[in-house]
């Protein structure tokens, strides 16, 4: 088993980033205009990286599949963004941010990256405020914080329940300024089809104009993927409809390693599944758990309305089991417990797959107005979907696929195993280990884009040998041809099943076997079933229309083709990791109470998979995780 | 949600194969609609049926399906996003309709919004207006500590009301002049309220207004339908603040300040 080198700089944890910045070569301001950088994706990571690189003087080409860069799925993040400011004066520090994140990730993240995240977190908040992001404030005019799961301090900055929207509009503003100045050329409604690798370096992409259907080659000196996560492999997830894995998966097929693909965050507070026609799951922000109590009826099969169930016939299972963290345990723990309660027959709602999240005590304590000011938009959203008023009756919630900790493997510089290919935000794997803490993903995406990648990309450009262009032409021609063939193949099947019907079936396989809990039998079954489904897909798919005009079904078919391979890889990875950690719970490795039991002796590593051809088992590379600054303990939130 | 009572509808949907081609309304029956579906899920189900019948599905823009990305949008019975108040079309649920209803669905109409296909329109003009100045010009790094600038809570709340705009274009589609004034004023107002936005206040309001004109949007003549159509209920008081900013820029702004 080969080892991957994360290129972690020497020095103490606190000095690594500083020393590394000093050691990295710089590109002279006058020379920067000679370099072209492609950024794919305009969420928090992509927009902030595009803007920052353009401000420094590089020529940037930025691509997004949406009609405007402002619509990337970061916009839907609700609750907040963490930073180690310690404005709340409750004992927070960079060290504590680091520790909480490492522990929350169940000791499967890289120490050096996480510490750096804490270090730059404060700059990110300053940056956002300077851009005019309207974070919530105290009466005195200073910023206010709230608390999120898995921590005991208040370090979360927020803008009502629309934090992601406001942060993204800040980054979009910065990007728009660079577009106006000509330093960024923006390509909306373009989808990356392939990564072009020349002489083992990432040198460009093939992108498809979604309106005309044209395939177009774009050349660059470095390529940045900031294309988000792949939760839509579950079909029903909290992700936007267009969120997909294709950019990272095609990079994987060009040789980039895909790390910990089975690490998925199933968020505990989604609105439960309610209809067969349902197209997505809607999240109720984790911040709600600050003011809510989660419970189920004590007696299984209790069908009375929530308000008719007396206090002594309710089980506040999180508060009972985890007295010190209570309702604010990390997401993986909360999700698992909700599933356990439902498996034990105590679930509520029409399907029995839901638990109550009750605000009555907070409304009594603080008044309806205060609660409405904090969470009004979420309550409205819930009422609109479920047709019940959460001010009057408790919300019903159930775990929903939400975030993928796995992603393309990157070193300390956020560079993948393909030189010149950088991966930022949710698309990489680096900072969250086996479970992400709430409000850490917005921070990671912005930290990567504003304050990390702009330095490390410069370091690469300054040293890389980018002179040899001899084989450029062939590599681009080949990729163009392959992309065209792939599209034509999808259109030519002309079978009897729609994209969505295949996707729904894949989602069910994944949810049943690679979801909140996993076991060997289920994972083996999932691999077989996904393979079978993939085979049927290529024989029986029906895509209407053609490739010369806007055709959403064709786009979806291409993305699903990748999900059908990724789903298998996720199961392979989950099967290989015979321990439980964070969101990855192997039933064979749990305590009697259902808590995850890690196996540090055999699995204290990142699993990075390298593509070896269709139908061939990918090759496993490992990055051994070294913990010098924290002691490996079994997590306890009791 | 116990016993589902399905409803049947007749849709009159705008079909247009491409930007250069002529469009027309097509009548499509939609039977057995689950009232718990969202409007877009109803269209999904209809599209599944059309595909299996070898017909082209109805193309429509959508993404987050929780009312925040601003991607979706269509006229439902002549109203942007339909008759649900304070919501985008993805949040409109079929329980808001009755069995036997006829529903007319067409794209947002405005000179600045060209139809791409069926219900999909090109709203890149809104991006162009933001590019003209809808931001605070700060580079990455070197910004002061976030708490160095105290801002009154009520001020920031008002700025947040304006910042809630999702850029969907419903205000434009509802306006008899196809003006983007509510959209423009929301951004101008947000940044005018905040101390960080002051240094560029004059240039911003002039540049954004000029770009709105360039893009082919009409002027505001106080019809006020935009705030009713807005899925985020952005108030026209922001237009009033825009007007004050515009006046201030005219009276006190240096004449050399020209839109870039």
What's the short story on this structure?
The complex is a heterodimer of chains A (638) and B (260). Chain A is α/β, with parallel strands linked by helices. Chain A has helices at residues 16-23, 44-56, 94-104, 111-130, 163-180, 246-253, 317-321, 331-343, 360-366, 368-386, 440-463, 472-492, 499-513, 520-540, 552-576, 600-603, and strands at 36-40, 59-63, 81-82, 156-157, 184-187, 190-198, 201-209, 215-219, 222-225, 258-259, 264-270, 293-297, 314-315, 355-358, 395-404, 407-408, 421-423, 517-518, 585-586, 605-610, 619-624.
Structure description:
- The complex is a heterodimer of chains A (638) and B (260).
- Chain A is α/β, with parallel strands linked by helices and 638 residues long.
- Among the domains of chain A are: 267-401, Succinate dehydrogenase/fumarate reductase flavoprotein, catalytic domain (Flavocytochrome C3, Chain A, domain 1, Alpha-Beta Complex), CATH 3.90.700; 477-610, Methane Monooxygenase Hydroxylase, Chain G, domain 1 (Up-down Bundle), CATH 1.20.58.100.
- Chain A has 16 helices and 21 strands.
- Chain A has helices at residues 16-23, 44-56, 94-104, 111-130, 163-180, 246-253, 317-321, 331-343, 360-366, 368-386, 440-463, 472-492, 499-513, 520-540, 552-576, 600-603, and strands spanning 36-40, 59-63, 81-82, 156-157, 184-187, 190-198, 201-209, 215-219, 222-225, 258-259, 264-270, 293-297, 314-315, 355-358, 395-404, 407-408, 421-423, 517-518, 585-586, 605-610, 619-624.
- In chain A, strands 5-2-1-9-17 form a five-stranded parallel beta sheet. Chain A has a five-stranded antiparallel beta sheet with strand order 11-15-14-12-13. Chain A has a four-stranded antiparallel beta sheet with strand order 16-10-20-21.
- By secondary structure, chain B is an alpha+beta fold.
- Chain B is elongated.
- At the A-B interface, α2, α4, α5, α10 and α11 of A face α1, α2 and α3 of B.
């Amino acid at each position: 088993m080969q080892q991957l080198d994360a290129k972690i700089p020497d020095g103490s944890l606190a000095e690594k980033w500083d020393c590394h910045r000093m050691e990295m070569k710089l590109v002279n301001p006058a020379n920067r205009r000679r370099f072209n950088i492609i950024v794919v994706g305009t969420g928090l990571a992509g927009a902030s990286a595009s803007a920052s690189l353009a401000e420094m003087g590089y020529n940037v080409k930025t691509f997004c599949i949406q009609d405007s860069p402002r619509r990337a799925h970061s916009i839907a993040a609700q609750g907040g963004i963490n930073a180690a400011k310690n404005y709340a004066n409750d004992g927070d520090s960079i060290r504590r941010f680091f520790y909480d994140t490492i522990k929350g990730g169940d000791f499967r993240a890289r120490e050096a990256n996480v510490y750096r995240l804490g270090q730059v977190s404060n700059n990110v908040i300053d940056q956002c405020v300077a851009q005019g992001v309207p974070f919530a404030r105290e009466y005195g005019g200073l910023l206010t914080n709230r608390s999120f799961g898995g921590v005991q301090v208040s370090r979360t900055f927020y803008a009502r329940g629309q934090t992601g929207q406001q942060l993204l509009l800040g980054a979009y503003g910065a990007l728009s300024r660079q577009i106006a100045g000509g330093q960024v050329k923006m390509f909306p409604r373009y989808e990356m089809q392939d990564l072009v690798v020349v002489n083992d370096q990432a040198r460009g992409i093939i992108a498809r104009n979604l309106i005309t259907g044209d395939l177009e080659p774009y050349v660059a000196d470095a390529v940045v993927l900031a294309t988000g996560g792949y939760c839509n492999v579950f079909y029903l997830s909290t992700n936007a409809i267009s969120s997909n894995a294709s950019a990272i998966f095609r990079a994987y097929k060009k040789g980039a390693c895909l790390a910990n693909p089975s690490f998925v965050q199933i968020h505990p507070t989604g609105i439960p599944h309610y209809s067969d026609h349902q197209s997505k799951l809607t999240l109720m922000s984790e911040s709600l758990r600050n003011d809510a109590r989660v419970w189920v009826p004590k007696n299984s099969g209790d069908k009375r309305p929530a308000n008719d169930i007396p206090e002594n016939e309710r089980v506040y299972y999180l508060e009972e089991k985890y007295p010190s963290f209570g309702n604010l345990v990390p997401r993986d723990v909360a999700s698992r417990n909700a599933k356990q309660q439902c498996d034990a027959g105590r679930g509520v709602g029409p399907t029995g797959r839901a638990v109550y999240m009750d605000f009555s005590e907070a409304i009594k304590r603080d008044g309806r107005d205060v609660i409405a000011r904090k969470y009004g938009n979420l309550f409205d959203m819930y009422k609109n979907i479920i047709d019940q008023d959460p001010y009057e009756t408790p919300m019903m919630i159930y775990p929903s696929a939400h975030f993928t900790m796995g992603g393309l493997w990157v070193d300390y510089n956020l560079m993948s195993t393909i030189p010149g290919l950088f991966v930022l935000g949710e698309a990489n794997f680096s900072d969250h280990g086996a479970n992400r803490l709430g409000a850490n993903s917005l921070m990671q995406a912005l930290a990567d884009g504003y304050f990390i990648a702009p330095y490390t990309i410069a370091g690469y450009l300054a040293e890389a040998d980018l002179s040899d262009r001899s084989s450029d032409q062939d590599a681009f021609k080949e990729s163009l041809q392959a992309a065209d063939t792939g599209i034509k193949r999808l259109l030519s099947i002309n079978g009897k099943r729609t994209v969505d019907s295949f996707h729904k079936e894949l989602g069910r396989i994944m949810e049943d076997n690679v979801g909140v809990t996993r076991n060997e039998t289920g994972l083996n079954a999932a691999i077989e079933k996904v393979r079978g489904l993939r085979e049927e897909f290529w024989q029986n798919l029906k895509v209407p229309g053609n490739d010369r005009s806007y055709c959403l079904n064709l786009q979806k078919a291409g993305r699903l083709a990748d999900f059908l391979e990724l789903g298998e890889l996720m199961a392979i990875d989950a099967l290989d990791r015979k321990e439980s950690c964070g969101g990855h719970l192997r039933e064979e490795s749990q305590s009697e109470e259902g808590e995850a039991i890690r196996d540090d002796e055999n699995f204290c590593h990142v699993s990075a998979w390298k593509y070896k051809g269709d139908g061939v088992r990918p090759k496993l590379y490992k990055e051994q995780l070294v913990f010098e600054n924290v002691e490996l303990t079994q997590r306890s939130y009791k | 949600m116990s016993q589902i009572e399905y409803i049947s509808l007749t849709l009159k949907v705008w079909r247009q194969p491409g930007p250069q081609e002529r469009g027309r309304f097509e009548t499509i029956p939609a039977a057995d609609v689950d009232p718990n579906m969202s409007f877009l899920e109803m269209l999904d189900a209809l599209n599944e049926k059309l595909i299996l019948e070898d017909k082209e599905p109805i193309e429509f823009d959508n993404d987050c399906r929780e009312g925040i990305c601003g991607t979706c949008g269509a006229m439902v019975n002549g109203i942007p996003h339909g008759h649900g108040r304070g919501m985008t079309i993805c949040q409109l649920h079929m329980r808001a309709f009755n069995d036997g209803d006829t529903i007319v669905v067409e794209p947002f109409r405005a000179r600045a919004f060209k139809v791409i296909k069926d219900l999909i329109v090109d709203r890149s003009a809104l991006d162009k207006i933001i590019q003209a100045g809808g931001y605070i010009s700060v580079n990455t790094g070197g910004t002061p500590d976030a708490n160095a600038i105290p801002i009154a809570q009520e001020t920031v709340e008002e700025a947040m009301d304006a910042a809630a705009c999702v850029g969907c274009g419903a205000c434009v589609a509802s306006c008899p002049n196809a003006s983007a004034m509510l959209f423009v004023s929301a951004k101008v107002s947000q940044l005018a309220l905040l101390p960080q936005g002051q240094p560029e206040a004059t240039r911003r309001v002039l540049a954004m207004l000029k770009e709105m004109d360039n893009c082919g949007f009409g002027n505001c003549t106080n019809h006020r339908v935009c705030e009713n159509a807005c899925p985020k209920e952005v108030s026209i008081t922001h237009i009033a603040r825009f007007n004050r900013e515009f006046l201030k820029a005219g009276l006190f702004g240096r004449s050399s300040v020209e839109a870039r």
